[in-house]
Specification:
about 140 residues, alpha+beta, 4-stranded antiparallel beta sheet, disordered N terminus
Length: about 140
């Protein structure tokens, strides 16, 4: 039993993780595609995912997503849109998924979707808007909201 414990102790001490330096949080990092699809600012979170598939020769599948999150006074506003297009094959299919959440005393969320499927093509567009504040008077002060 002592041999096994000694073996694990040597294994842990010789592991590169045991001697690694702490991460430098002041340097920029490269985000993965999945991380780029989700944006968080303060208490507001948005996620937009677009999927498209087309099977066969001479087919096309394309997706596009955009997310904007900003703060105006005491109000956080987020908007996201996703578009998916697939064409020229009998199995063309698209989907757009939108999610949003916020921590605030007042939270407004609005989603919309447009879908156009034909026997040879598919187009889907989805949008999401989220507005959040902890101060109800901020909605009255901020003109244009």
């Amino acid at each position: 039993m002592k041999t096994i414990k000694l073996f694990y102790l040597i294994l842990v001490l010789s592991s590169p993780c045991a001697w690694s330096e702490p991460a430098d949080t002041n340097k920029p990092i490269i985000l993965t595609d999945i991380q780029m699809d989700t944006v968080t600012a303060g208490r507001l979170k948005l996620s937009v995912t677009a999927l498209a598939s087309a099977v066969g020769p001479d087919t096309v599948a394309d997706t596009d997503t955009h997310i904007s999150v900003f703060k105006r006074g005491d109000v956080e506003i987020g908007y996201g849109v996703g578009k998916a297009f697939a064409c020229c094959g009998p199995d063309s299919d698209t989907a757009v998924l939108t999610e949003g959440s916020a921590d605030g005393r007042i939270v407004f969320t609005r989603k919309s979707a447009f879908v156009n499927d034909t026997p040879q093509s598919s187009y889907t567009e989805g949008t999401i808007s989220v507005l959040s504040t902890n101060n109800p008077e901020a909605l009255i002060r901020e003109k244009g909201l």
